[in-house]
Amino acid sequence: MNGPVIRLSVALVILLVAVPLAIVLLASVSGGERLTFPPESLSLNPYRALIGNGEIRAALGRSLIVGFQVVVLSLIAGVPAAIALVRFRFRFRFPLGLFMILGVATPLIASAFAFLALFTWMGSLGSLWPISVGITVVNLPFLMFSVASSLFSLDPRLEEAAATLGAEKVQTFLFVTLPGIMPGILSGTLMVFVLGISEFVISLLLYTINIQTLPIAMFASLRGPPPPEVAAAAGLYVLAAVLVVVTLTSLKSTEQFFYRND
Amino acid sequence: MSAHPMPASDAAGQPAIVRLAGVVKSYGSHNAIDHVDLEIRPRELFTLLGPSGSGKSTILRAIAGLTGIDGGTLTIEGRDVRDVPTHQRNIGMVFQSLALFPHMSVFDNIAFPLRMRREPQGGIGRRVAQALDIVRLPNIAKRLREEMQLEIVRLHREIDVTIINVTHDQVEAMILSDRVGVMNDGKLMQVGSGETLYRRPASRFVADFLGRANVIDGVLTGGPDGPAVVTPGGARIAVTPERTVAEGRAATAILRAEDIGMATAPASPASLAGEVALRLFEGETVYYEVTAPGIDRPVRLASRTGEIPVGAKVWLTWPRDKVWAVEAGHG
User: Fold this and answer.
1) Which among A11, B106, B202, B261 would be 20 to 30 A from A41, CA to CA?
2) Nearest-CA neighbor of A27 among A246, A222, A195, A223?
3) Which CATH architecture has domain B212-327?
4) Which residue of A has its CA nearest to B60?
5) Per-residue model confidence as pLDDT tens digits over A178-213
6) Does A34 touch chain B (CB under 8 A)?
7) Within an 8 Å CB–CB cutoff, is residue B116 touching chain A?
């Protein structure tokens, strides 16, 4: 089983992961007026086209707004929820935990349909915030898992020690718990931000024509021959993903440095 | 103050600074703290000693307010602290894991309690410097653990605080403490100085837990030669004439390994005959196990010379006033 077989399968996986990334990045720097693959020449034209296209630029702006709204909502809901589920013993703790992660397990199209029905009934369609709320609900577990894993590695005796040293509950949280779970909060925040700026299914059902987010705008423009700015937008997404992965890896090592268990 | 009962005084005549009366803490049907009465005197270094799971840490956590109690009363400086949260109990606790704040500098770790108690900023810097001065003892990294323990004793005398220590290490308990409380299965078995616990244990458990003791069950019998515990097999273990057990009662003789002398000829008619079964060189002393007729377990003893080989026929003797007897089945 070892040796060549494993090496071959690893190579295959690397190839499968790399090919779409390579195609996107390569296409985003193609020369020519129209998008071809493989590109005949290299240039930054697609990115210039992206900046020049007001509609795509506005969609990018909306996606960033959605990303920030998702981050704020996720932090408000997810951090206290993760702390409660990990640290407190209360009735229905386990079923509640399962319920909170149901959002990520439910098929997106089903959740999206539910949000469409809800926000239509509320008459809220046409603004960005219903999209942000929907994305937050389905992606909240990513932030909660991240915060929870930080909490698990945080020695609960640190909080007890703080109390014996005269710290009130609020002070213990601010000066001991919060700095301790900060790596988890940061990595969870990055994750839900990237998921927020790139979300498609919920946005597709909840958008109206004047609040297209970037993924919707890209999808819409792909009905004809693909314009170069779409390749640039896809390239931006890949770069954002790379940035997040690199940041998360360095956070992980920071966490291990600060919170290694003796 | 008149609303509060006066703090009870202990044998030393000082009011207790921490007082537990009938304290119970249960987890399901198991009592982690089982009706414990305990008084800690001001400025003493008190150690709770016991095997793991005996409830010593639970008592410490209850005093700190990290664990609630299910029964009895707990007072600190005469005040019932049932509803006083940890941060208002004016205590400090050192955890076995140290529980240093990993995201803070050494300075911030030391300054933490001062800041929490809203000390003025200037004073904090000065006091942290003092704390660091204590740490900067000569060759601190090279100091042995034992020397550090002595350092704690010295510091305790200088800084005028009450310390409650928890350990399963009986040597540490005896070296450090003014008084020791021995715990077993949630119960406080005995409280006293290390020497008292060692020389005059109130129960078989305490005798067994501190040091290397031979605990030999039998019946306390009188006689012209003085009292002895006579085993079912007929061996006579001469014990102290101090009466702790009534004649004719089941009793346990506690014979310390270091109090037993061994010779290859009978030193007196009271000598116990036996045969060397095991000899282990331990450095300072040589550890022996001697099988003797009438005693089911081999007698353990420590010899300074250790020249007697395995298989030799030997006679054991001991000063009878060093051999304590407790009522059998008492712990």
Assistant:
1) A11
2) A222
3) Beta Barrel (2.40)
4) A164
5) 998 998 999 999 999 999 999 999 999 999 888 999
6) no
7) yes
